[in-house]
TrEMBL record:
This is histidine kinase. SUPFAM superfamilies: ATPase domain of HSP90 chaperone/DNA topoisomerase II/histidine kinase (SSF55874), cAMP-binding domain-like (SSF51206). It comes from Streptomyces asoensis. PANTHER family: HISTIDINE KINASE, SENSOR HISTIDINE KINASE. One of its GO terms (molecular function) is kinase activity. It comes from the Bacteria. Residues 18-124 form the Cyclic nucleotide-binding domain.
Length: 491
């Protein structure tokens, strides 16, 4: 949008803090190459357009905003004379994309000193060569530093996740090893029983009935109902009494296995009716081996499935075999992150998933969103642990207009109001020394805002802290996503 040209007075622009030390000749050049323009309320320039001009406000009110989805979110509003915005990186030339990193509008008639980007670049390099070199070094040095500390933060998170994943994998792996060793012992005993049977100790008809009972018992194991501790204890007592009454040795040891398999007194009565009384103790022993074998195989199956599930979650979390930018279901990302962090979350923190499964998939960088979820969950767990370790972490998804909301809510002590405005600043942390780098939220903010054109905000009160991530349902392709490296507020 073009404004109304107005006379440029060297005396007026010399009153601005940017130009107060310039010589009359320099002020004259500014006025000859630049211009003063008056803008009526409305837009001045738009985010993403080629950065053609450098603006310095003489009088009025300016508002800067960033595009989030289909909305413009205000990030700054000021009436201070001398604030500047626009092509502030012109002196870097082709080393960075020369586009506006925000949108600017005015809310009342406003005058600007407007300098073309090329003139601004030439003047910076001619008048302040040392400063231009220092600023260039600072710009790229800061960018490299941010990349390095970001990588360091990711490595720290990876180390924590690796420790948690190792712990989670060790439990089912150890269970499978124990079950395999016990299963080998039970199979050996069954071979011994088979040798007894082969010696002719059992009547063929009784043996047929026993094998039939064995098959039906094995089927029952797979359908065993879940019992409460009190129900299981009562059934164990009843089975122990029945086994003792029928002269079955070590009934107290067999009964818990039968209960776990879903067997009851009625089932034992059916077995007693099917075999002779003198064969019953051996039949019970044989069935006990059958039940134990089935239960052990179920345990091995559960353990190996658990390991496979964890490996799949790790694969989903790391996105090793996926394109860096693709359409994703945020619920899959959230579930994989929560599973990867389950060891850190622990048993005392209840995790509630309040998902809106009707939400569509969105274009995103999934591996980097997982980094955001990791940082926010880690902070929530730390907050809850600081109040005794018991609480609730609620992960909620919802649709808000053309944005997708992912909210992490914890029941921790909350964030004090006097530091709430600084929590996204690099290296600022409320954690004790050695427990936080102050980079997690800064990295999360950059991933959400700069890379996904979304927003990250926080609402906090004692017992109710909510970090809200808003992501566009549609987004530009990866080649058009630029990461701003300058402040979005007029300086």
């Amino acid at each position: 949008m073009s404004g109304t040209p107005m006379p440029c007075s060297p005396g007026e622009i010399s009153s601005l803090f940017l130009f107060e030390k310039l010589s009359p000749e320099q002020l004259g050049r500014l006025c000859s190459e630049g211009r003063v323009e008056r803008f009526q309320p409305g837009p001045v320039y738009t985010e993403g357009d080629p950065a053609t001009c450098f603006y310095v406000m003489l009088e009025g009110t300016v508002v800067l905003s960033r595009r989030v989805g289909g909305d413009d979110v205000e990030v700054s509003r000021t009436s201070q004379r001398g604030v500047y915005a626009g092509a502030m990186q012109a002196y870097l030339g082709d080393q960075v994309p020369q586009v506006y990193n925000n949108s600017m509008r005015v809310t009342e008639p406003t005058r600007f000193f407007v300098l073309p980007a090329q003139s601004f670049s030439d003047i910076m390099r001619e008048w302040f060569p040392m400063a231009a070199h220092l600023l260039e070094g600072l710009f790229f040095g800061s960018k490299n530093t941010q990349r390095a500390v970001g990588q360091r933060e990711r490595l720290l998170a990876l180390g924590s996740l690796s420790a948690g994943l190792t712990h989670e994998l060790n439990n089912p792996a150890a269970a499978a090893v124990r079950a395999t060793a016990t299963l080998r012992e039970r199979v050996a005993k069954m071979r011994h029983k088979l040798a007894v049977i082969a010696s002719g100790a059992y009547d063929p008809e009784a043996l047929t009935r026993l094998i039939e009972i064995q098959e039906r018992t094995a089927e029952l194991v797979a359908k065993a109902p879940a019992l409460s501790p009190l129900e299981a204890s009562d059934r164990e007592d009843a089975l122990t009494d029945w086994l003792d009454d029928h002269d079955v040795q070590e009934g107290w040891r067999i009964a818990p296995t039968f209960v776990q398999a879903g067997l009851d007194v009625d089932w034992l009565e059916q077995i007693a009716d099917a075999v002779d009384e003198d064969v019953l103790p051996s039949a019970m022993g044989w069935l006990n081996y059958t039940v134990e074998t089935e239960l052990l195989m179920d345990e091995i199956d559960d353990s190996t499935n658990r390991i496979s599930h964890l490996v799949d979650a790790a694969k989903q979390y790391s996105q090793l075999d996926r394109a860096p930018y693709r359409v994703v279901d945020v619920h899959e990302l959230l579930d994989s992150t929560l599973l990867m962090l389950s060891g850190k979350i622990g048993q005392r923190i209840e995790v509630v998933k309040d998902y809106d499964r009707t939400l569509p998939q969105i274009p995103a960088y999934p591996a980097e969103l997982n980094q955001v979820w990791t940082n926010l969950v880690d902070n929530a767990v730390f907050a809850v642990n600081s109040t005794g370790g018991e609480g609730t972490l609620t992960v909620r998804t919802a649709r808000e207009g053309d944005l997708l909301l992912v909210e992490f809510r914890d029941t921790g002590p909350g964030i004090p109001a006097d530091v709430r405005g600084r929590i996204f600043d690099p290296f600022f942390t409320t954690k004790p020394v050695g427990e936080g780098t102050g980079l997690g939220l800064d990295i999360s903010w950059r991933i959400v805002v700069n890379k996904h054109h979304g927003s990250l905000q926080v609402e906090s009160a004692p017992g109710d802290t909510r970090f809200q991530v808003l992501l566009p349902l549609t987004a530009p392709g990866p080649d058009s996503v630029q990461e701003p490296d300058t402040a979005e507020e007029p300086v």
